[in-house]
Amino acid sequence: MTEFVKPSIQYFELWPLLAVFGVACLGVVIEAFAPRAVRYTAQVTVALLGLVGALVGVVLVARDVQSYDDGAARGVFAVGGTIAVDGPSLFIWGLVLSLAIAGVLLFAERHLDGGVSAFAGQAATVPGTDAETAAIAARREHTEVYPLMMFAVFGMMLFPAANDLLTMFVGLEVLSLPLYLLSGLARRRRLLSQESALKYFLLGAFSSGFFLYGAALLYGYAGSMDFAAINEAVRNDVGSSSLLLIGTGLLSVGLLFKVGAVPFQAWTPDVYQGAPTPVVAFMAAGTKVAAFGALMRLFYVALGADRWSWQPMLWIIAILSMFVGAALAITQSDIKRLLAYSSVAHTGFILTGVLGVQASDQLAVGEITSLQAVLFYLTTYGFATIGAFAVVSLVRDSGGETTAIERWAGLGKESPVVAAVFAFFLLAMAGIPLTSGFVGKLAVFSAALAAGAWPVVVAAVLASIVAAFLYVRVIKVMYFDEPVGAGPSVAYPSVLTATTIAVGAALTLVLGVIPGPVLDLAGVAGEFIR
Amino acid sequence: MTQYIVLSAILFTIGCVGVLTRRNAIVVFMCVELMLNACNLAFVAFAKQHGNLDGQITAFFVMVVAAAEVVIGLAIIMTIFRTRRSASVDDASLLKY
User: Fold this and answer.
1) Out of the domains of life, which is the source (chain A) (predicted)?
2) pTM of the predicted protein model
3) What is the domain count for chain B?
4) Measured CA distances, B61 to A160, A478, B76 (Å)
5) How far is the C-alpha of A119 from the C-alpha of A131, rounded, in Å?
6) Chain B partners of A196 at a C-beta cutoff of 8 Å?
7) Does residue B92 lie within any of the structural domains?
8) How far is B14 from chain A (nearest CA, A)?
9) Which end of chain A is more exposed for a tag (fewer CB within 10 A), N or C?
10) For residue B46, which residues of chain A lie inside 8 Å, CB to CB?
11) Which positions in chain B touch A333 (Cβ < 8 Å)?
12) What is the pLDDT of residues A205-243, one digit of tens each?
């Protein structure tokens, strides 16, 4: 048994994490002590200030980090080697924080539903009872959603930066638990919302059980939870390889569930349809970014020496995700379910990038590493998704949001601007040139080609064609179909949602026309420190 | 040593099968907890085998996480039960296709 050594905490490098966590705790205190009237303003202000402060912290830390161990990677290990503050971590932190700022703006939107937010007035009341009517009449609001979201952001930042299995598990749970609750808090269609929370929770808890057992088996194999130690053990082939293989498989179940890859995609459409749209916008973008960061760190840093075992598995899962996601998306009649299946297809495309070459010194001129490609794709995907869901929250009828695709017919005449912006997001997801999606797809495909994964790339190109059909179908409905009945109406958003959509659309355009700066930034992020 | 690992694997499998076959959300949830506890047993057994404390400390963290999960999970199941007067996972079937 070794002596207990007090870990030193790198407060400066961890400032973004600590700021978000502090703001989350402060939100709980506000909820407990502030009078109801000021809570909304206080919570939104505190959340936004905290996120902006953390984002500034990320920039400062990124300017300051030094090369690690004189290698190509830059960064430091914090808190006794459990958290890696390196280039990829910082890039993902910046991305998650930007998406979270957009998420707070969507959460705070009150114009769309007659002066109240998209969240249940009082979640404890049973739908359809007098108590619920009273809560609605009193214009109650759950301002707890802001601290819950801040805890989720904290988890999203901890998860990809975790450098041992225990920290990664804690990050996974801190990210997931608030999202389970947030999914169940919709103001309208509360039965659907509660059902989505139940499904998300049960399946999520089930998959984190797999993750944890995988962690236990890897610990049994390597005798340590630390990624570097696991890598060392794999290199030296110390223990029973069946422990390693089963452990890797079980860990991947947990991670692939979080990114929504086939065959672990079952929760995605249900949760995306049932949960409140602002939550879906934030969760769809943020969870994917964080979970892919964690997935790459686990596979590259801890299991990099064993890549011949896990790469074939990822090949198959990438191909399945692309085709199943695209094929099932075509059959959907609900726009949120369609976007959910399209996110499954995107998971497949991102996994294609994960299969690329990891080390920059093994590349020919003009090729990019898988990490650079995936980080860029996540940026394009994140902003297009959050923007698309923000647009979905605008199209409404008397019963709240109208998400049936056939009810979107005639949107092009009703509101040309909204229809055009949504069509633009769809084209970006389809990967049409001059949108960010095109450059993102190009990046992940070339990264995978450089590593010789051409069968996956061929499949990905074919799946892109299938996926393009489904996006074009929605555009056709919006512009060329005759409206059913009164047709859709578009709620006029406040500056909050409008800003989110505008920024999402602008970034989607800019990243498509001049992708250089962000691609370079993802390149500068470099490699994971080991 | 192997016995403990085998026992934890059996417990994990029982939990896993339980999640897939049971219909009451509370029982499904109990089976998830059984899986987490099977993990704890494996962690502690491996910690003994390797002679370091990592696995034992992890077991404490897992207990805390499991407790947090209970809080969230029971809250969600409670709201579903109050709305539908049933905690069966088969009844919650509005979201499909």
Assistant:
1) Bacteria
2) 0.95
3) 1
4) 19, 51, 23
5) 16
6) 95
7) no
8) 13
9) N
10) 216, 219-220, 223
11) 97
12) 999 999 999 999 999 999 999 999 999 999 998 878 899
